[in-house]
Write a structure and sequence with these properties.
The complex is a heterodimer of chains A (253) and B (330). In chain A, the strands form two sheets. Chain A has a nine-stranded mixed sheet with strand order 9-8-7-10-6-1-4-5-11, sandwiched between helices. Chain A has a two-stranded antiparallel ribbon with strand order 2-3. Chain A contains seven helices and 13 strands. With 253 residues, chain A is an alpha/beta fold. Chain B is α/β, with parallel strands linked by helices and 330 residues long. Helix content of chain B is 29%, strand content 26%. Chain B contains nine helices and 15 strands. In chain B, strands 7-6-5-8-4-1-2-3-9 form a nine-stranded mixed sheet, sandwiched between helices. Chain B has a five-stranded parallel sheet with strand order 12-11-13-14-15. In chain B, helix 4 packs across helix 5 and helix 6 runs parallel beside helix 9. The longest helix of chain B is centred in the first third of the chain and has 15 residues. Chain B starts with a helix and ends with a helix. Classes of the chains: A alpha/beta (253), B alpha/beta (330). At the A-B interface, helix 4, helix 5, strand 7, strand 8 and strand 9 of A face helix 4, helix 5, strand 5, strand 6 and strand 7 of B.
């Protein structure tokens, strides 16, 4: 049976309208509602389902970030993960932390914890990078099943349906493998109150990148973070005829 | 002898001249996908020498097309059955071998499902931090991209010596496939087979309509359509406008249309001349995929829908009346 490592990130909640800092150094995060990256919830759900189907023996949730990342890990534990590892990264180091750093951490932990399957979300909704799964797979020399909308265990490995630009494609991978979850992989469950209480007793180990021998030296310099250009206010047209007239005026028809 | 100052200048011009970019072409074995032309234009913005890699089971048509683009110095071709399905596991060692031979400063691919799957794998092998979905090139090391679903614009300087980048096609004008005559050469040979995975099959959504990400006009539907059958209203309108049809996540999740039609932060990013949003409220995640459209039209019965805040022309009406009327009057 497989041991599954699942990566989760604490991000600003998807419904929050973000604000850029006046000094253009980033976006305002203090006092803003955070939650688990939606794609990571799907990743956790898939890992827990693997365990429920007796395909996985243990689900280990990992998060890299400031102290509050532990709340995100507790959520993963409440959803059904068995234990958690928090890699504490804070301050300036966290500001410039990139998927390459996370991938190195996940790759090292996969080896240390003897994981067979790594599942992460296909992208974090804050930096929108869409890189971590691919990079983790590369570092481990494992196959990658990115943008997965269906994962099935077969005798020799996994059959994965991937969401691609023109439709869907199916691949078969060996195990060990890295999977990135797309939106349609599953419907994540809500953690129930008893499970949230139980999650408080589950083991959560704290480590640093240094413990794993991963160098967090910044690979990028943030020059600026700015608001996108604001669209000029439009107008409401009274009827279809006016709309057609406007489209003609604009040369669209 | 050079003074320290002029020596520095000399070195920096040398470096600029030595800038060289590899564009990983996206094609389907029958021809180049148009997005590759947009990526070429980003490569030319970076400056220096531009090479293009065409890998697949049949590369002839795509290689011939791209070799005609001006500003391409060489086209490297890797044709083999191992590249079936354009998998990251087989293309990564090929790109690494190509990189080893030519030492590019930049490696570019489109920020499509293809480019996003392959390039981060390459970057990890090169121990560099890739840059996803750029919308601007400031200079050879400085790039612009969006974060937080397009609600903030990040300008960053890459410190790594090799820049591995995926490019948002709609942010760069397509380079015409004319005026050039690049040499077509064989890419470095090697054993690119993988036993890690096997590509099995593809199920592509068939459509006679223009391809979503390069269409001039798009008609898009959301939850307001209520059913898959009702999407026929949009197909009829799209036919009149020679438009592609897209959808919001709500419409995809409800099973009205297949997921490859999804426009938004996690679907496709489009920027057509005309975007008609029908029965779409305009959540942050949807706006991320379409707010760079030149003209946005919204048809929605809820005057409070956020889509009206970005729409150039809004029509507060029942789509089941307004859309057929619009179609019949066009």
């Amino acid at each position: 049976m497989a041991r599954v490592l699942v990566g989760v990130k604490r991000v600003i909640d998807y419904a929050v309208k973000i604000r850029v800092k006046p000094d253009k150094s980033g976006v305002v995060t203090d006092g803003v509602k955070h939650s688990m990256n939606p794609f990571d919830e799907i990743a956790v759900e898939e890992a827990v389902r693997m365990k429920e189907k007796k395909l996985a023996s243990e689900v280990i949730a990992v998060s890299c970030g400031p102290a509050q990342s532990q709340e995100t890990l507790r959520t993963a534990l409440a959803m059904g993960a068995d234990r958690a590892i928090h890699i504490e990264v804070a301050g300036a180091e966290y500001e410039t932390m990139q998927p390459i750093h996370v991938a190195k951490i996940l790759a090292k932990l996969s080896k240390d914890e003897k994981a067979d399957i790594v599942i992460v979300g296909k992208q974090a909704i804050d930096d929108d990078s869409n890189q971590t799964a691919q990079m983790t797979a590369a570092l481990l020399d494992w196959p990658q099943g990115t943008f997965a909308s269906k994962v099935e265990k077969t005798d020799s490995g996994l059959t994965i349906t991937r969401e691609i630009d023109g439709g869907l494609e199916t691949i078969k991978t060996k195990i060990p493998a890295v999977i990135s979850a797309d939106l349609r992989l599953n419907e994540p469950r809500y953690a129930t109150l008893p499970n949230i209480m139980k999650a408080k007793k589950k083991p959560l180990k704290k480590m640093t990148a240094k413990d794993l021998g991963v160098d967090l030296t910044s690979r990028i310099k943030i020059i600026s973070v700015e608001d996108p250009p604001v669209r000029q206010a439009g107008s409401i047209v009274p009827d279809v005829d006016t709309l057609i007239a406007k489209l003609k005026e604009g040369g669209h028809i | 002898m050079f003074s320290p100052c002029s020596r520095h200048l000399f070195l920096s011009t040398q470096l600029r001249r030595l800038q060289s970019t590899l564009v990983v072409a996206e094609h389907n074995n029958e021809g180049l996908l148009p997005v590759t032309q947009n990526i070429l234009s980003a490569a030319k913005k970076i400056g220096g020498d531009v090479s293009v890699l065409v890998a697949g089971t049949k590369c002839g048509p795509a290689a011939e097309q791209i070799s005609k683009a001006s500003g391409v110095s060489k086209v490297l071709v890797a044709e083999s059955d191992v590249f079936k399905g354009f998998t990251a596991e087989t293309l990564t060692p090929l790109i690494l071998a190509t990189q080893k031979q030519f030492s590019f400063t930049h490696i570019l691919a489109p920020a499509t499902a293809f480019g996003k799957a392959v390039l981060p794998r390459v970057a990890a092998k090169l121990d560099v931090s890739p840059i996803t979905d750029i919308i601007g090139v400031k200079d050879a090391n400085t790039f612009v991209r969006t974060i937080y679903a397009g609600n903030a614009i990040l300008t960053l300087e890459a410190k790594d010596s090799i820049k591995v980048i995926t490019v948002r096609g709609t942010a760069f004008a397509p380079e015409p496939l004319e005026g050039g005559s690049a040499a077509v050469e064989k890419a470095p040979e090697g054993d690119y087979k993988t036993d890690l995975m096997e590509w099995i099959s593809q199920e592509l959504t068939k459509s006679d309509r223009p391809e979503l990400t390069s269409a001039k006009n798009i008609v898009s539907g959301g939850r307001g359509l209520k059913s898959g059958e009702n999407f026929k209203l949009l197909y009829d309108l799209a036919d009149k406008l020679n438009a592609a049809v897209g959808a919001s996540r709500a419409a995809v999740d409800a099973g009205f249309v297949p997921n490859d039609l999804q426009i938004g932060q996690t679907g496709k990013i489009v920027a057509p001349d005309l975007y008609i949003a029908v029965g779409i409220s305009g959540a942050i995640q949807h706006l991320a995929g379409m707010k760079d459209s030149k003209t946005i039209v919204a048809i929605n019965k809820d005057p409070e829908a956020p889509i009206f805040q970005v729409a150039d022309h809004g029509l507060v009406a029942d789509l089941f009346k307004a859309v057929p009327e619009l179609t019949s009057k066009l």
